[in-house]
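Reply to dn_fold:

You asked what the input looked like. This is it:
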Amino acid sequence: MSAMSGDWRTHLVDKVRSLINEAEPDVVEEAKWKKASNPDGVPTFSADGLICTVETYKDKVKLTFAKGASLPDPTGLFNASLDAGTRRAIDIREGEPLADDALVALVREAVVLNRA
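and this is what came back:
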């Protein structure tokens, strides 16, 4: 798989999308913040409020949880935006494993928090 193609990012975003849907079947996905440099926009996932956004960069896919600072993260998924006030993010680089179960649990916690 060519690093230039970006295929790994597309596959990763698809996998993240399926895990989010597994965690919360009622999730609503929307593309927001469309611009010339990103005509497809940023996928946002919501259920009674924003859960997370999924942004694609050249070297990573970034999942930013809107209320991440308030979520339990027992497996240490969050590895970015750790100093942000309310947000927390997960940067996933090519070839890095994705902790499926932990991500599903995190999305479920985010939905619980939104519905609290």
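The chain has a mean pLDDT of 93.
Hope that clears it up.
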